[in-house]
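Dear Dr. H.,

I hope your travels went smoothly. While you were away I took the liberty of generating a structure for the chain from your last submission, since the lab meeting agenda had it listed for discussion. I wanted you to have the full record in hand beforehand rather than looking at slides cold. The sequence, exactly as received, is reproduced here:
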Amino acid sequence: MTLRLSDNVRELRPSATLAVAARARELAAAGADIVDLSAGEPDFDTPAFAADAGVQAIRDGKTRYTAAAGLPELRRAIARELGRASGIETDPAGVVVTAGAKQALFNAMFVLFGEGDRVIVPAPYWTSYPALAHLARAEPVFVHGDPALGFKVTPRILDDADVGGCAGIVLNSPSNPTGAVYDERELRAIAEWAAARGMWLIGDQIYNRLYYEGARAPGLLDLGPEIAARAVVIDGASKLFAMTGWRIGFSYSSAPLASAMASVQSHMTSNATTPSQYAALAAYSEDPATRDEVRVMQHAFRARRDLVVRLFRDLLPGVDFVEPAGAFYLFFRVDSFYDDTMRDSVALCARLLDDAGVALVPGEAFGDDRYVRMSYATSEAAIEDGIGRIARVLDRSSVVGSR
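The corresponding predicted structure, in token form, is as follows:
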């Protein structure tokens, strides 16, 4: 029998980042000496205050359904935190708690866009944005950012691209895969450009507290209530509190839009896992201990960023990269190493995995085949070992200039 899939998944491909991580785990389980620099998750344990709250919720029998949009007290805590950070009045009715930030992104795209709509996706992009647009029957329109600006886009770049009639734009800051961060002036310019064209803004700020130039990166809510009214902010506990497996994300938007997204979610997953919501409630509390834990991770990632930058400049001086201002990724250029046997980023990553035991993610997955992404969400020892291995393999090829 021939398997015939629906048009809903015609453009769908598995997540490249998850596929690389799975392959690295398989090789390690088989006894290979693997340095995994592909993972997009903190290597810290979930803080005790959150883990204990989740365990206690189970012991207390808090394992039943909640409202599809989440526990009222968690929605209030998230709204309070967003308001404290941005200085605008926030409404708990605008919060929808989701099974990870990825579901929040799906909800937003599915509700805002449909067949025939076009959605601007600046490139390089996180791997799931195009797939989520396709699932909503919309068309992702890729606009390549300026390498000199860390691949950020500007109104001028957008004006020069074929984006007429687009219904929305997805902004990711700090960026996965580049680590670039839009400052408030840059965000405002894009937001005003989008508003003048009647576009929705989706702001993925899942890494906004993993920022190296302040306590948090600027976000759309910082731009005031008028811009917030045409925006959906995406965030969650995964990166900030090292809770990737707990699967707690959220969206914040106007209350009517949040209600529509909660309705979609009610037919898909219902609520996010109840004990995980109680764990997140502890994380989003106003207890100073939560901020102390976040600062520990911020300092560690900043130190790792500095180490990665230093090692690349020392060991791979001919390789261009985006110096990260946030998140925990380095996006570096490798097309000068391509040859007849290693023609693209996929082949280069395969070579590094086979010859050096280093797992990286090909830039093709992010919309730029000239580059490769490494994660430094791992120990400093693993970072030093991994970059040393990369340098030894790439040193066998000569840097002859970018294509």
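Two observations you may find useful: The radius of gyration is 21 Å. The chain has two domains: 7-45+290-394, 64-285.

With kind regards,
E. W.
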